[in-house]
Amino acid sequence: MKNLMMLISILLFTGLAINSSADNNTHSMDHGMHHKMHSIEDGRVSLGLSPAMKQHQLANMRNHVEAVQSIIELLSEGDFNKASHIAYSKLGLTEEMKKMCNSFGNETFKNLGLAFHKSGDTLGDTLKTKDLTKSLSALNTTMTYCVQCHATFRQ
Ligand code: HEC
Fold first, then answer.
1. Exposed, middle or buried by CB within 10 Å (0-12, 13-18, 19+), for 43?
2. Nearest residue to 155 via CA among 16, 61, 28, 24
3. Ligand 1 pocket: which of 149, 152, 154 to mutate (most atoms <8 Å of CB)?
4. Within a 13 Å sphere around the CA of 15, how many CA atoms are in the beta-carbon half?
5. Is 56 exposed, middle or buried (0-12, 13-18, 19+ CB in 10 A)?
6. What is the mean pLDDT of residues 109-126?
7. Closest C-alpha among 33, 27, 30, 26 to residue 12
8. For residue 41, what pLDDT is reported?
9. Contacts for 108 with CB less than 8 Å, ≥ 6 apart
10. C-alpha distances out from residue 101 to 105, 107, 110, Å
11. How far is the CA of 137 from the centre of ligand 1 (A)?
């Protein structure tokens, strides 16, 4: 019994420690366990997605980060053509991405998503010029949308 209580305290303590260290905002401890039971309130707008949509979006996002990594790798190898192809096909405004962005029912999110994918096409165009400085600048512009959207929205 004593051991069980100890185990529970350790688990609770660890849970709180992880909870507060994962949250750099100032309001972690005062919300305590209550805070942990609900989705994290961090000032971002929730898209209110269904579980299926959440999975779909996260898979999509993992593809985005992989595309960025591939583009950086190809840039380091000087393979601008292949990098350009990846920019168009994985980050550009394809029919699939257009449909995805239109399906969230949030106008600001949609516009940010569409602008992001347009910047992916611009990145594709820029990579074709084989100018490294311009290409990095275009990649930076595209990544500005990643940062901006993540700061504004959550699932
Ligand atoms: C229009 C909005 C938007 C844009 C643009 C965007 N994302 Fe996301 N991304 C999201 C949302 C919303 C989430 C879920 C975040 C949450 O709920 O905390 C997310 C989550 C992620 C995740 C987490 C995936 C997982 O499996 O946990 C990664 C990685 C990611 N995005 C990468 C990127 C990269 C890289 C870019 C740019 C190349 C990008 N995203 C552009 C909205 C966006």
1. exposed
2. 61
3. 149
4. 12
5. middle
6. 98
7. 33
8. 81
9. 45, 152
10. 9, 9, 5
11. 20
